[in-house]
Amino acid sequence: MELDGRVAVITGGTRGVGAGIARSFLEAGADVVVCARRPPDRPVTAAGRTAAHVPLDLREPAAVQDFFDTFARRHGRLDCLVNNAGGTPYRPLADGAAERHARVFELNLLAPLTASLAAYPLLRAARGSLLMVGSVSGSRPSPGTAAYGAAKAGLEHLARSMAVEWAPEVRVNTLVLGMVRTELAHLHYGDAAGIAAVAATVPLGRLAEPADVGAAAVFLASGRAGYVSGASLLVHGGGERPAFLDAATVNKED
Predict the structure, then answer these.
(1) Residue-wise DSSP of the chain
(2) Starting from the edge strand earliest in sequence, which strands make up the sheet with 129-135, in order?
(3) Catalytic, out of 120, 148, 189, 227
(4) Of 129, 135, 158, 196, which has the fewest Cβ atoms less than 10 A away?
(5) Is the pLDDT confidence value at 253 over 90?
(6) What are the C-alpha distances in Å from 39 to residues 33, 35, 54, 136, 159?
(7) For range 67-83, the mean pLDDT
């Protein structure tokens, strides 16, 4: 399999997109460790194999360093780090002080930087790869989640700079995600009808599944992407149909 003998760490890998990436890595033959503050509701398994879980708050630099020091002693190598942990509540900018928005930056930008720096010696030794999980919110207006969008824009830029600084030993790429159907999709899009309506706005006609993201992550971590670094891979089903096309009064069928 594509990742036989590889060892991977996936942050926030206990549910949603992160669990989907973890399952795809397991299916591809990798040994997987997922880290998150809380354990998964059920073990993350695939292909008869199970990801190990280690509790970790990625906003605590000392704990992150200790995690990777312990990881090095236990596993001896690290071939891929996937910086997936992140997220944000809905909060218009004027509804919160700068300090509250700063916590969104802390989780979505500073935490991936902290983990990447702690993992760098291991990745360099293995000539491994680093994946950032970005978002289309980083390249378009993101009302209600502006701090999140700004953090994801910064994350993508950080990955491109890392790809240059850390070459040729470490490849660094970003998965730029659109809307994904996870167990928390109802919190973002509403009930089944709401999810279906949102999915209809995607050119491919559906939301991504976590497995779609996982397949893209496996590709970027594998030897098939050995000459891919500093790239941003769009995993968004074609993006969004421009609103002006539906608003315009020309080129309409009778």
Answers:
(1) -TTTT-EEEEETTTSHHHHHHHHHHHHTT-EEEEEESS--SS--EETTEE-EEEE--TT-HHHHHHHHHHHHHHHS---EEEE---------GGGS-HHHHHHHHIIIIIHHHHHHHHHHHHHHHHT-EEEEEEEGGGSS--TT-HHHHHHHHHHHHHHHHHHHHTTTT-EEEEEEE--B--TTHHHHH-SHHHHHHHHTTSTTSSPBPHHHHHHHHHHHHSGGGTT--S-EEEESTT----HHHHH-SSS---
(2) 52-55, 31-36, 7-11, 80-83, 129-135, 171-177, 232-235
(3) 148
(4) 196
(5) no
(6) 12, 8, 8, 28, 28
(7) 98
This prediction's pTM: 0.94
Q: What does the block give as tokens for 217?
A: 């992550």
pLDDT reading at 135 higher than 80? yes
Cβ contact 13:39 at 8 Å: no
Active site residue 90: no
